[in-house]
Amino acid sequence: MKKLIAIILLFASVAATAAETNKTVPRRKPLTANVGVVGVGLDTYWKQFDGLRDVMLDKLATFKAKVDKNGVKTFDFGLVDNAVEARKALEKMRAADLDILFVDMVTYATSSTFMPIARELKIPIVLVALQPSDAMPYKKATTFIQLCNDDICAVPEFTDVAIRLGNPVADVIIGKRNGDALADGEIAKWCNVAKVLHDLRRARIGLMGHALENMYDMQADPTAVARTFGCHVALCEPDEILKHFLEEDAPAVEAMKKRILSFFDTPNPVSDPITTKLTDADLDTAARAAVALEKFAAERNLDGFAYYYEALPDTQMRRLVTNFIVGNSLLTAAGFPMCGEFDIKNCIAMMIMDRLDIGGSFAEFHPVDFSRDTILVGHDGPHHINIADGKPVLRSLKKYHGKPGAGAGVEFKIKEGPITLLSIGVKADGSFKFVVAEGESTAGDVPPTGNTNTHGKFKPDVRTFLRKWCMEGPTHHFALGIGHHADEISKVAKALGIECVVVTDQQK
Length: 508
What we know:
Elements: H1 2-21, E1 34-40, H2 43-48, H3 52-68, E2 73-80, H4 83-95, E3 100-104, H5 111-120, E4 125-131, H6 143-148, H7 155-164, E5 171-176, H8 181-202, E6 204-209, H9 222-229, E7 232-236, H10 238-245, H11 250-263, E8 275-277, H12 280-299, E9 304-308, H13 316-321, H14 325-333, E10 338-339, H15 344-355, E11 359-369, E12 374-379, E13 393-397, E14 407-411, E15 417-426, E16 432-442, E17 452-457, H16 462-471, E18 478-482, H17 486-496, E19 499-502
Parallel strand pairs: 1-2, 1-3, 3-4, 4-5, 6-7, 6-9, 9-10, 16-19
Antiparallel strand pairs: 8-13, 11-12, 11-18, 12-17, 13-14, 15-16, 15-18, 16-17
Helix pairs in contact: 4-5, 5-7, 8-15, 8-17, 10-12, 11-12, 12-14
């Protein structure tokens, strides 16, 4: 009996440890999007073939159910079958404030039915041709059966008209209506893209301070940001956060301390002399700064924040602005991307990844490991702790290298497996450019320096990859996410009208 109790206690302890290790920060706001679904057909057919319209409505209902599974708000505009009905549907589409529109090609339809929608809607339009039958029963086929499976027939007519109107469709999904994982996956990808567009168009991103001196790649015009991504850039003052930092709110600070310690380990230092075990003073400052950040974000109704400010030495402002790291990490993991060094472009890259639900950590390249054919991927300061491999670590740093200040630093590796990088650069004409790469997060020791680092492996080899990456003109920062998602990010770029280069695409 004693042995049994001991075994039960052991398993309970292991389970508790596992639960603690895998603890994640809950999302501040649920992911969603406004996704429209409309079917198109030809009214002439309904008089000619009894019951055909009902079959088309059933096909449309099947497609809508597929969309509904992807965590979006679906707007069903029914089956439109002539230009008059299309214009009526268009007014409803405008009122719905859609992020994307799926056009279900349930049978042949004339392009006049599509023309008002293609001309007026300035959102991604995806044509979907999902055939109910794997193949027609040729020897027993009828015109009725053919019309039930004529999903592809009008697609080139629609794409031609859209191009001639200067508003090409975003994509065409072709496949089977049932049991087609590939087609279902493409629908899911576009629903994920819709979630990105939904939040970008509505986001308020705070911008505070100035670029780190001499970092010219950090500069971005707030108006260009708003024009391209749809978000509003709210210019903020450090004093807006300082006032909350100076408040005496002991219960909130103590609660934040407990919260921080529930997410982070605080081990003894290892090899770096500028690191120590997390001190009570650094924990207190980190907690006070985290409370101030959350109050500030709520007060300004922000959805993200890019910042850099040094302040004068030996001031409370210096103490505050150099100790955002822990609060930043908690907020970023909760879906509120915070990007240091004034990099609003990377803040947007982090938001894109977060809305794809793949992380979005603040990162750059560190030393190459030529023996492993890997490169360390990470950054000093804050990170998206929900993609950490195990429980992240807090260390006290006696100095922040290259910057003023001292305090708590976040350290962890990200989960092993597929990873994606996204950097947003600026071209000579002022337009933005996505530079994307897919690779692997691999096992390996990382330096215990109070910073994040992960061994990233990229095809065909680290030298070739880095050369190709650098030659595309990214900033030295990028957003780091888990999984391979270059295709979805490319779709986001297309929807935004941004050039996108995937440097690890073996076809290039």
